């Protein structure tokens, strides 16, 4: 995989990472991470990659409840776990809470055991 500042066809490394976080694609994420041998370069890439709306990778995963990707992100060396996004000034925790609050509550019939 080409370094992000090299000329290449198709999606950039940053775009691939964003897509992996959006789709909870752990295989794609691991493939990209495995190709980056320099720990400092990997940390820089994971911490500085943002969407056009100013969301970091962690925000993208948190906004969709993608726990598997979040777990992989938090396992990376020197990963910044509390970045602030540009639009709302939110941390990933704020974003995750927004996602949780947007999910419909479980129905009473599925949340409680049948008494009959």
UniProtKB/TrEMBL annotation:
Q: Which InterPro entries does UniProt cross-reference here?
A: Ankyrin_rpt (IPR002110), Ankyrin_rpt-contain_sf (IPR036770)
Pfam families tied to this protein: Ank_2
Name of the protein described by the UniProt record: Ankyrin repeat-containing protein
């Amino acid at each position: 995989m080409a370094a992000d500042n090299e000329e290449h066809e198709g999606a950039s490394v940053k775009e691939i990472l964003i897509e992996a976080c959006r789709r909870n694609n752990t295989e794609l994420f691991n493939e990209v991470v495995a190709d980056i041998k320099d720990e400092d370069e990997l940390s820089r890439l994971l911490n500085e990659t943002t969407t056009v709306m100013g969301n970091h990778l962690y925000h993208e995963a948190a906004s969709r409840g993608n726990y598997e990707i979040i777990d992989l992100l938090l396992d990376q060396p020197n990963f910044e776990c509390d970045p602030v996004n540009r639009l709302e000034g939110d941390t990933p925790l704020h974003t995750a809470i927004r996602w949780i609050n947007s999910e419909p509550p479980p129905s009473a019939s599925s949340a409680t055991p049948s008494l009959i």
